[in-house]
Amino acid sequence: xxxxxxxxxxxxxxxxxxxxxxxxxxxxxxxxxxxxxxxxxxxxxxxxxxxxxxxxxxxxxxxxxxxxxxxxxxxxxxxxxxxxxxxxxxxxxxxxxxxxxxxxxxxxxxxxxxxxxxxxxxxxxxxxxxxxxxxxxxxxxxxxxxxxxxxxxxxxxxxxxxxxxxxxxxxxxxxxxxxxxxxxxxxxxxxxxxxxxxxxxxxxxxxxxxxxxxxxxxxxxxxxxxxxxxxxxxxxxxxxxxxxxxxxxxxxxxxxxxxxxxxxxxxxxxxxxxxxxxxxxxxxxxxxxxxxxxxxxxxxxxxxxxxxxxxxxxxxxxxxxxxxxxxxxxxxxxxxxxxxxxxxxxxxxxxxxxxxxxxxxxxxxxxxxxxxxxxx
Amino acid sequence: xxxxxxxxxxxxxxxxxxxxxxxxxxxxxxxxxxxxxxxxxxxxxxxxxxxxxxxxxxxxxxxxxxxxxxxxxxxxx
Lengths: 376, 77
Hints:
The structure holds two protein chains of two kinds. By secondary structure, chain A is an alpha+beta fold. Chain A has 16 helices and twelve strands. Among the domains of chain A are: about 1-45, no CATH class; about 130-205, 2-Layer Sandwich (Gyrase A, domain 2); about 315-360, DNA polymerase, domain 1 (Orthogonal Bundle). Chain A has a four-stranded antiparallel β-sheet with strand order 10-11-3-12. A four-stranded antiparallel β-sheet of chain A has the order 5-6-8-7. Chain A has a two-stranded antiparallel sheet with strand order 1-2. By secondary structure, chain B is an alpha+beta fold. Chain B has one domain: Alpha-Beta Complex (Eukaryotic RPB6 RNA polymerase subunit). Chain B has helices at about 20-30, 45-50; strands at about 10-15, 35-40, 55-60, 65-75. Chain B has a four-stranded mixed β-sheet. The interface of A and B includes residues 286 and 296 of A.
């Protein structure tokens, strides 16, 4: 960051300035003079102390959001690309509400040596979760002998599956017969057989848990990318064929767990920005970044709303003003909470001067100094 | 697990010295409590080995803005 006359100029703005000077052919002396003016301009366009930036950010994000289409799924998709991911307003709400259940999606780049179509497809098929139900042709319950029959597909080894089944499910006997596996449970009521069959079909036999589908496509820079439906960041990062510096998932909680709170904050900002961009809405990143900063300020992810940022305000009146008025007021009365009236909303409510803008400034008098002056 | 530091989502984290900490708090005229927080269980905190009460300087590379500095204090959790 460069400082001109006490004004810090952000890198990106400096780059833009340099490019402008180069394009227009401005010489050294003129450039210095222009830079001083530029610094003044930047200083003027800054927020002043006391500006209610939170309200401005809220307005700047939600006004364009009202223009968003309510349609929640993409209509068009390129071949190989997945289309099941939520877009538009529903996605924006998911991000700011910090929801825990939503359509997860990952973006994985293979390592340089695997950067071709064949390898990418191979990796994609390796990471997709395979269950027993995916490797059998059919399964049946033999009511005569009270056992479960599994007919494996030709390329799988029945002995391997046998040991896996014995390890995963207790109190069963497994027999193999070529590509057919017979499972004989100890409890052999019909209901038990059905339950055990469902359990068997759900056993993971390969791939990474949670990755449901994977598609391969080429990005703008001709790199091969694997996009998956479903996400498991922890396992993917440990997987050795992929470029772990560029793994991306839209699950903020997973990112928080594996990469930490700062990365989660970046994902919140990126998800919100991308969602708005895809709808053709131009919201300044600064607003979104501030929302993301507020959501992660306590070291863990908080949603914007009743159970998160707004619900954890210090002032009783501010909380009651937002949602669930009666609940907050009764609880405060019950606990004997005190509202120091330090923030904006509560001062608006009781008709005081709010600490926004010029209201922030207070007059302080140093009585000691006045006394000394008088003595002189 | 230091490989997590190489991901593009993770900005640079550094522990700042005691003098820098005092200078920072004086500059913004705040107490340690008022800084944004980071949990001691955070994976990055574990990698750089920060302890509760340390202040971490985060050099972010923000989209459309460039490098910015951010500070978080490590809290128990």
